[in-house]
Each structure stands twice: as C-alpha cells, then as structure tokens.
C-alpha cells in the first residue's frame, strides 16, 4: 500500500434500508442493515476484491460507491473530495472517473440501442469529444475488449453472454475511468467464458492502470484478480489483507471457513480438513450483538456477544492485514473442530 | 466454442451485413409472414384511404351526402317514402341506394360517415395514448406519493361505468362552452366526444405503462445510465421510452376500434354526432328506424363497420404477436 492519498477512502459507510409497515399509515418499523460501518481504502491502480456470502452487502457497497444508492451514514471520499451526499450535478466531474460493470449482461444493455449507441452514450452524456470522433473511439474500445469493430451497428440480442459483458466493459472504459466497480462481473457467465472476461479485466487493469473494486463470491477468481482482498460478513468487513497474506494466513475464523470450502483441484492430495459452518446467516434486520459471526463461530465466548471486535492489525499480522476478531486464528492452529458445539448455545 | 471464436465467426458472416437487425426490423419481418395481419392491414389501409379521399371520390362520383335527391326527382321514392327501386334503390346512379324518407345518397353518406368516425376515433386514440404515456411513465418513474395518488385516480376511473358517464357527461361538456338555448355546433360535438373518450380511456394504458416502467426502472441498463451521469430526462426518453413502444403500439391498435364502436354507440344513443352530420352511428340509428322495410340501408354501414373493426382488431393482434412474440398464446 502506498502512503500517498488513496484514490477512494471509505469510512464508517452505512446503509440501512427502512422496512415500512403498518396500516393505514405506513411508518418505519425496522431496517435491513445491509452495510454497517465499512472502512477501507483503494489506492490508485489497485484491485481490491470484495468477497462474502450472498446477502452480506457486497453489491450494496458497490452501489454506494458509485452513488446509485444514498448512504445512511459514513463518508466516501474520492481523491480527498467528499462525495457521500453529492447530487447529480456535483458528481458530474467525478462521474467519468468512477464507472461500474454489472452482474447480468442480459439486463445491463438496453435492448433497443445499438452497440455503438450503448458505448458512445456515456461520452454523449458527459459531452466528451475524443479526437477523431466518437465513432472511431467506440471502434477502438471494441477492439480493446476483443470484439470486432464492425459490430458497431449491431444490437445486444445478437451477442452471447460473454460478448455482452465485453460490451459492458467497453462502456465502462469509454470515459477513461480511474476506478471501476465490478459487481460480480462474471458470475452470470459460463465457466469457460469467465476466465476470458477476468483476463480481459486484468489486462485493462494493468495496461490502463485502473483501480478496481472487484465484487465476487468466487474465491479463486478474486485470488487471481485482486492485489488486496476484503472479506465481508453480514454488512461488516471481518478481514482485509494483501492477497497472499489473506489466503496463506487467514486470521478470522470466517475467512478460514470460507477458504477451506474452496474445492480442491488435485486428486492425489490428502483430503484437506473442511470447516463446515452450521446454521444460516442471521437476518440483517436483527443482527447478533457484538461480533456478528459469533452465532456460527466455534470459538465464540461471552466477550464476543457483548463486545464488537474492532477491525485492527492483530498480533502477528503483517502491516495492512486487519482482522476483526477477539480470538484470531494462528497459522499453526489445530484444525478447527467440526462444530461439535451446539450453535444455539452460543447465541 | 469459445467466445473469441464466435466473435470471429459472426464477424466473418456479417461482413456483407455489418448493419445489425434492430428489434423493430425483426418485428417487421415477423409481421410480414403473418397472412392474417397483412390482409387486415390492407383492409384497414383501404378504409383510411377512402376516409381521407372522401371529398375526391364524391367529386368524381358527382354527388354529396347532404343533397336530398328525392326532392328534385320524386320518382326515386315511392308513396311510403321508401326507395322506389329494388334493393333500396341501388342503381348505376346511386350505387348503394337511396336513403328512405329524405332521399340522400347512401354511398357518399357512408364515405363521409367513415371519415367522421375514423377522424374522431383516431384523435381520441392519439390523445388517450399521449395522456396515458405521460401520466403512466411519470407515476412509474417518480414512484412514492405521486404514484400512489395517480394509482388511486386510475382505480376510480376504471371503476366508473363509462358508457353511462359518456351519456351523462356529454351535455355537461356542451354546457361548458355554449348556452343551453343555442345550437351545438358540429366541431364542439366532435371535440366533446374526443375529450370524453380520452378522459375515460387513459387510465388503462397509464396503469399498464406504470407497471412496465416499474420493471424497467430497476434494470441494470438504467443504473448504467445513471452511473454515467444521465439526467432523468435522458433516462426517460432514451432508455425507458424506446422499450415502451411495444405496449404503446399494441394498446393503441386495440384502442382505436374500441373507440370507433364507442363513438357509433354514442351517436346511436343520440349523445354523439347527430343527423345531418354523416356518421357511422347516425347511419345505423337511421337504418334501425327503417330496417323492416328497407334492410339495404342498414346493411351498408353495419357491414362496413363490422369489417373495419374486425380487421383492425386482427391487425392489433398481429402487431402484438410481431412485436412481442413471447406473449403468443
């Protein structure tokens, strides 16, 4: 991590979706705490992976950074400029620098527009006139993402899922952004196509020096793509570290459980010890007190229920490796018990 | 096959036609294959052409719908004021026969009747669709309180027994513009009809479009436009509306024949256009007075209207199938 000012600085980011109920007058009866106090930074040109189970707030985080959603609390600054509650007009100069790639390539392209129109749309909106005209620039972008420039006048329905996602990448690149939020960009694609798109994104990231917030639930892809990885659980970051550090030396029990769930490709190897988490992810409407993972953790104690562990550099961590746990795992720890303990007892 | 390979392949076979086939062009191709649709389209076009060209045809034919030819030539009608000739007085002079009692020419009267009825129905459809699109898209896009309010107004309008209210409201509309003892001019009758039909017609199309917009608003391509900084105006006109043309066109083509029959029904009941203005409803109303003695006079307006409404409805179905092939039963 560089010591210079980070490109994106997120602190205490919170998003609660109100639940309306009651009759005849509707009022707020509760809130889904989708994202609850996130702190992280993204340096220029860095790829940060954001992993976690479904419903842990990854996508919400992505939409908060791109300001598609209005944060409930916390602060987002881009190059030192506070954009937490900036309106559409205030955002205008920054819009072109933060772009997004969407999950579903079948929903993210307007079926009534040609590829040329889709990709040149962002330039039109931001009144950017590249040398040689917009059309030439679009053809160039199509080439960059590995599509034929002749496809300029075609419609999205004429392309496969992988090709559509490439169009989505070209659209994101049209404004020459400094930061791209990729919201599960390959999870809707066939496995054979996933690698191609990930490699394309990697090429883009390296050659154009674009920082990425890469949201995914596939640990292997995140490992391949990101320099730094943050693990989320129920709206909070439980661990954040450099890639190798996190994969080789996970300190949070949840990270360990996640990593142990990655399927193994080698056949001959001794079967690795798997940590099976029992129970479901608790509801984000009413999350557990203290540490949110305690209801499924085999190490949970009284302290975990009363005191929320801060995200800090715990003993034995390299700089930049932050873990939110009272009882961090150690590298040579005995394999985790298979949860002989009744999870209800911890609750 | 890999993605790269498909890309290359489509590129090579697309060398002669790099122009993409737009959804609209695909729909046109599907429509052309639908025989019922094409025939219906020709019938509908025929009706519109004769409606537009009515004065020209009347001039070539040498008669007009207002002259009572029987007063100049009493031989045309018998002592009971019914056409003297067979088949309602059809002859080389009067192609569709002569009207009983007044002795007007049925052919030109029918031409002008189609002209009036189609004009009113078309204007009412355009106004209805315009109102429905504006209100529906606004409610769907803004959501919240606006949506709630518009939704309740639509509920109320849709629960009205509309025919009853047409009858009740027409005099009210006339009363707004003209003193009760004055004659109601034809233009006011036409405008009144258009306004009343549109007032009660926009609700269904607005509700449909509101639902469509609610669905589209959450689609990722709208979010993508927002991320690039698109204004609400641009999102509505460039991202949402192009995806709404299908339901709009389908609703419009099904609405027009409904308005033709509604307008004729009102004329028949005496609250729409009235004699001597040529109108489909007026003709059928007059035909109903004499049908026991002179069925021919009723046959022409009746049959022509059935053919038109049937053709237009079939056309509407074909248009829907062409634009929205998934909804095919």
TrEMBL record, chain A:
Domain ABC transporter: 8-259
GO biological process entries: peptide transport; transmembrane transport
The keyword Aminoacyl-tRNA synthetase is annotated on this UniProt entry: no
Alphabetized UniProt keyword annotations: ATP-binding, Nucleotide-binding, Transport
GO molecular function terms attached to this record: ATP binding; ATP hydrolysis activity
Domain of life: Bacteria
InterPro entries the UniProt entry points to: AAA+_ATPase, ABC_transp_ATP-bind, ABC_transporter-like_ATP-bd, ABC_transporter-like_CS, Oligopep_ABC_C, P-loop_NTPase
Keyword Transcription: no
Family the entry assigns: Belongs to the ABC transporter superfamily.
Identification of the protein by name: Peptide/nickel transport system ATP-binding protein
Organism: Streptomyces echinatus
TrEMBL record, chain B:
Transmembrane segment boundaries: 39-58, 118-144, 156-178, 190-209, 254-275, 295-316
Protein keywords: Cell membrane, Membrane, Transmembrane, Transmembrane helix, Transport
CDD domains in the record: TM_PBP2 (cd06261)
InterPro entries associated with the record: BP-dependent_transpt_permease, MetI-like, MetI-like_sf, OppC_N
SUPFAM superfamilies membership: MetI-like
One cellular component (GO) term of this entry: plasma membrane
Subcellular location: Cell membrane
Mode of membrane association: Multi-pass membrane protein
Domain ABC transmembrane type-1: 114-316
Gene Ontology terms: biological process: transmembrane transport
Claim: Lipid metabolism is one of the keywords in the record: no
Domain of life (superkingdom): Bacteria
Chain residue ranges for the region called Disordered: 1-22
Coiled coil: none
Family statement drawn from the similarity comment of this UniProt entry: Belongs to the binding-protein-dependent transport system permease family.
Protein name as it appears in the record: Peptide/nickel transport system permease protein
High-level lineage: Bacteria, Bacillati, Actinomycetota, Actinomycetes, Kitasatosporales
């Amino acid at each position: 991590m560089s010591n210079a000012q980070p490109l994106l600085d997120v602190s205490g980011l919170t998003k609660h979706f109100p639940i309306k109920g009651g009759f005849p007058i509707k009022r707020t009866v509760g809130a889904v705490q989708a994202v609850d106090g996130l702190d992280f930074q993204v340096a220029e040109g860095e790829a940060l992976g954001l992993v976690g189970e479904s419903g842990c707030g990854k996508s919400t985080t992505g939409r908060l950074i791109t300001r598609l959603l209005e944060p409930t609390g916390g602060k987002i600054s881009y190059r030192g400029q506070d954009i937490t509650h900036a309106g559409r007009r205030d955002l205008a100069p920054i819009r072109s620098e933060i772009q997004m790639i969407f999950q579903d390539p079948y929903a993210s392209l307007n079926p009534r527009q040609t590829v040329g129109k889709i990709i040149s749309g962002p330039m039109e909106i931001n009144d950017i006139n590249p040398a040689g005209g917009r059309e030439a620039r679009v053809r160039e972008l199509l080439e960059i993402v590995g599509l034929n420039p002749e496809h300029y006048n075609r419609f999205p329905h004429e392309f496969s899922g992988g090709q559509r996602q490439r169009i989505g990448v070209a659209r994101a690149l049209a404004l020459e952004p400094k930061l791209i939020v990729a919201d599960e960009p390959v999870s809707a694609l066939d496995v054979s196509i996933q690698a191609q798109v990930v490699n394309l994104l990697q090429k883009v990231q390296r050659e154009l020096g674009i920082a990425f917030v890469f949201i995914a639930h596939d640990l292997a892809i995140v490992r391949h793509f990101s320099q730094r990885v943050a693990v989320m659980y129920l709206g909070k970051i439980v661990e954040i570290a450099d890639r190798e550090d996190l994969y080789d030396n996970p300190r949070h029990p949840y990270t360990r459980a996640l990593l142990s769930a990655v399927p193994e490709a080698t056949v001959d190897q001794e079967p690795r010890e798997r940590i099976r988490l029992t129970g479901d992810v608790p509801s984000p409407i009413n999350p557990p007190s203290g540490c949110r993972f305690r209801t499924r953790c085999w190490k949970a104690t009284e302290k975990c229920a009363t005191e929320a562990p801060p995200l800090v550099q715990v003993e034995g961590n390299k700089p930049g490796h932050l873990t939110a746990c009272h009882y961090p795992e150690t590298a040579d720890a005995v394999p985790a018990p298979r949860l002989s303990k009744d999870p209800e007892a911890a609750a | 096959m890999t993605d790269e390979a498909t890309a290359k392949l489509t590129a090579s076979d697309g060398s002669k036609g790099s122009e993409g086939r737009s959804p609209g062009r695909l729909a046109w191709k599907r429509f052309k294959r639908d025989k019922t649709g094409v025939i219906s389209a020709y019938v509908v076009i025929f009706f519109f052409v004769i409606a537009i060209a009515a004065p020209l045809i009347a001039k070539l034919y040498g008669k007009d719908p207002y002259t009572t030819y029987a007063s100049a030539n009493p031989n045309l009608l018998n002592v009971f004021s019914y056409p003297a000739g067979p088949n309602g007085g059809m002859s080389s002079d009067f192609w569709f026969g002569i009207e009983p009692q007044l002795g007007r020419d049925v052919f030109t009267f029918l031409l002008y009747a189609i002209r009036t009825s189609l004009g009113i129905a078309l204007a009412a459809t355009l106004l209805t669709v315009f109102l429905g699109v504006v209100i529906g898209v606004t409610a769907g896009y803004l959501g919240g309180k606006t949506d709630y309010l518009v939704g309740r107004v639509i509920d109320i309008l849709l629960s009205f027994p509309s025919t009853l209210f047409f009858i009740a409201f027409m005099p009210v509309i006339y009363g707004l513009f003209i003193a009760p003892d004055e004659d109601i001019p034809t233009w006011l009758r036409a405008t009144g009809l258009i306004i009343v039909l549109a007032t009660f017609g926009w609700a269904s199309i607005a509700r449909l479009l509101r639902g469509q917009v609610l669905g589209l608003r959450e689609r990722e391509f709208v979010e993508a436009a927002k991320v690039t900084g698109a204004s609400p105006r641009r999102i509505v006109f460039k991202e949402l509306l192009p995806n709404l043309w299908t339901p709009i066109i389908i609703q419009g083509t099904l609405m027009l024949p409904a308005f033709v029959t509604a307008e004729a029904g009102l004329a028949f009941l005496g609250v729409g256009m009235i004699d001597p203005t040529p109108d489909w409803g007026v003709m059928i109303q007059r035909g109903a007075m004499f049908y026991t003695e002179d069925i021919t006079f009723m046959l022409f307006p009746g049959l022509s209207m059935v053919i038109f409404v049937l053709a237009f409805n079939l056309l509407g179905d074909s248009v829907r199938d062409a634009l929205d092939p998934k909804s095919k039963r």
